[in-house]
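Q: Predict the assembly, please.
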Amino acid sequence: MSEPLVQVRGLTVSFMGGPSPIRAVNGVDLELRAGETYALLGESGSGKSVTLRALMRLNPEKKTRVEGSIRVDGQDVMALNRKQLQQFRGKTLSMVFQEPALALDPVYTLGQQIAEAVAIHEGVSHAEGRKRALELFERVRIPSPERRLDAYPHEMSGGMRQRAMIALALSCRPQVLLADEPTTALDATVQIQILLLLRELQRELGLAVIFVTHDIGVAVEVADRIAVMYAGRIVETGAVRDIIRNPSHPYTIGLLRSRAHGALQKGARLETIPGSPPDLANLPAGCPFAPRCRYAIDQCQTVTPEPVAVRDGQIVRCLRVGELEAV
Amino acid sequence: MSAAAPLDRGGPAQPLLTVRGLVKHFAVKGSLFGAKAMVRAVDGVDFEILKGETLGVVGESGCGKSTTARLLMHLIEPDAGTLIFDGETVGDGGLTMREFRRQVQMVFQDSYASLNPRLTVEASIAFGPQVHGVQARQAVDRAHGLLDRVGLDPSRFAGRYPHELSGGQRQRVNIARALALQPRLLILDEAVSALDKSVEAQVLNLLLDLKEEFGLTYLFISHDLNVVRFMSDRVAVMYLGKMAEIGPAGAVFDKAAHPYSAALTRSMPSMDPDHRTEEAPIAGDPPNPINPPTGCRFHTRCTFAESVCSTRVPALDPVGPEGGPSHLAACLMHEPGSGHSKAEAS
Amino acid sequence: MALLRFGADAMPSAIESSEGYWASVWRRLRRDKVAMIAGAVVLALILMAVFAPYIVPADPFSGRMLRRLRPIGTEGYPLGSDELGRDMLSRLIYGARMSLLMGVTPVIIAFGLGSTLGIVAGYLGGWFNTIAMRTIDIFYAFPSVLLAVALSGALGAGLTNALVSLSVVFIPPIARVAESVTTQVRNRDYVEAARASGAPGFTIVRVHVLGNVLGPIFVYATSLISVSMILASGLSFLGLGVRPPEPEWGLMLNTLRTAIYTQPWVAALPGAMIFITSISFNLLSDGLRSAMDVKQ
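A: Predicted assembly structure:
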């Protein structure tokens, strides 16, 4: 097999400046092949968004300490200089944000913004850029695209804005699309439209997608593989089917069982994970999930679990994974 | 709880809260010379909350579910509408607003914004009872009892400030604060939506326990259909300031009578990697509540829409014999003689 | 209702009590070196003003014409002498009394009146707010210097009138800030929750609004102290505020301006004092502002 398109090894990200550093990402390894969709699933503070931003070096450089290696399409991302980084962002990797209203410039029309991006990155004329923008608007299924190109972001509804944001992200034909909770702020009937659009674009353009979300249901709709993050580590990763049907890390098991769904008996109680996520400025020794884990043993408090393969492609960081599989 | 629970006046058959013709329009600034535009946030809503039930309210942004909650609490003044609480009209010489507010309390979505950052947890909880004449000492005792009840050890948490708590802990405090007045109806406006999933489940369980223990009635507002289905006995579906459908939870989710409810249900992620959603149930975004569509407000996005739908406003009527008298929907397809091809001729 | 007490002291039996709000503000302020230095300078200036009679090396009111405009470092005149041969050091120390008085008093008066007006307007909203705020906008239309000069001129020269006119100048900006902060707080969910509990408006303002708005208004007001000092100096400079021979930095700057070519360093000293004092007040209020941000 060829080299993966995205390869991250031992990524750690800490935010300095406070009384003690906030350890947002603590050793993340991930690989992504061309045309694959990968979901990073986790709660707030799990490090999923910080990981995504690290791929594009979007975390504030002065306050952040980043270690580990990130290679995208053969380039060492950590070694890029400013000029190369500009080319890299947008052309190799590009990003869709949760709040398109904040990510789009309010004083330019959407057509201007996309044409500008195309003109700068590809060195073509603005007219050429606008033609490209129109194509993209058709591609992301914006109705009456010609007219919408001359609209300002605030004149569009949330769903249309997110489509425009995706068009902008695709404007320079990136190989990898990073999506940071792109449907969280949207209504349910609009969310499913955007998810289907992303799936379609991914298939037709052969994009690799990393999709950050806190919602397992959304991850199942878009992803080929899921990585479950907790306290800055990937605690379990595998194909969507395996994660949903044979979750092996106690945290994944707990998340799936605590979901409210229609099949539950009226008046029944949900199975819960006790406690709350750890303080990233003051992480416990050993497995960070141990204080909340019903299967924790003494060893979990001291030993940091190493990744173990439980099934083809399903990797879990848990000391007791062998025993739990048997249960 | 020392004080006796408030009297159940009308008996179990009397709805706890009856809402009739609730209307709220907000003026928005139009252009300099243009006419003032109106956001028709809540546009004639009727429903009942039965004693001891959980009524779920679902709908998308702009449907008016949160505005309805605030109108019920009179945090914003309704333009029109009547509230009848356990048989007594609220205001107009009936139940006073002050007494009504003691019996109906609310938990907000943003756990941080809903606590005064300068008050300790116990002071926030004790505030309500003190306002209603409970001595400071007893109010604090009550606060400690409630903290204990919502799973926060009073000896550790009573003296803390909101910013020293996690989101889940703060929402527990908000629940304790709402319960401090010993209300009969609790309005939960997206009360678990901002919480992490693992914490959300804990709070949902707590709400179920408290409901049993104190004999509460819930109005549970959320955009998360899974959670609403888990919590609710009956569900109301709102669309652009109107009630689209209301009925038993199972009926609304599995045998939706209104095309919008059906589309909303089918928009939920499938959770099955082998049967992913292949087609979006409806296209487009919810329209702007300024100048909403005429006739049935859903007709612009509805796959069954016919020309009559853009002119005739559907009434909220029983769906038919199979749905039972408690299952209502506002759709011309269910209105005999409406002129829609799928409706029975009258 | 009179029994309602909400201070920390009224709350019995908090077993594990967290540090109070002001304790945490102080803890954060202490870590801010710039603010602490500025605070020390302000404290030193206040002490200097209070104990001026005991620390001045010479009489600030009597001078010898023969020893006018001596340079800095002259024997017996460590900071030189002014145009009437009076000791500059003593006059600068004495000047702190008037200058601080002129800087602080109008701000305190305006803080009291302006924040009351702003909080009431902000909490009530509606027509009262519209009338109050539009009236304030009229005052806003005039540049503050012009307004101060015009009012002082109309009231007549003199210390009291200068203080009154400066107070009037600062009421509109403080009321504006108070109104906008209160409007924000009024729409917070915790105020809504308090309304939902059936609490009367006055109780809500006292318990939930005041504590959350006074801090930001106070910080804004402290930043006006330096403006007030400079305006007061300006009034004195124009002969509308403090009268000679009373030492006041603005007035001293005025009387020394003829000496700017002969003894520029001496002539600049009162200006330097105004600068140091106002920048210290500004840095201190900046530090207070960030220390009062709870979410740190």
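Residues 269 and 282 of chain C are 20 Å apart (CA to CA). DSSP finds eleven helices and no strands in chain C.
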